Amino acid sequence: MSFFLRKYIIYVIFLRKYVIFLRKYVIFLRKYVIFLRKYVIFLRKYIIFLRKYVIYYSKK
């Protein structure tokens, strides 16, 4: 009986650590996604700017 109890306790401890790790990972992922969105928006603006720049200088 005590053997199973020990296994169960070890399993529960492992699960808690795993859940804590998962939460941190999810938080990290959210921050990363937010960063990616900002980066994509920035890239679009930059590309639009480059096009205007190229068009402007090709006319000259």
Automatic annotation (TrEMBL):
This is Uncharacterized protein. It comes from Strigamia maritima.
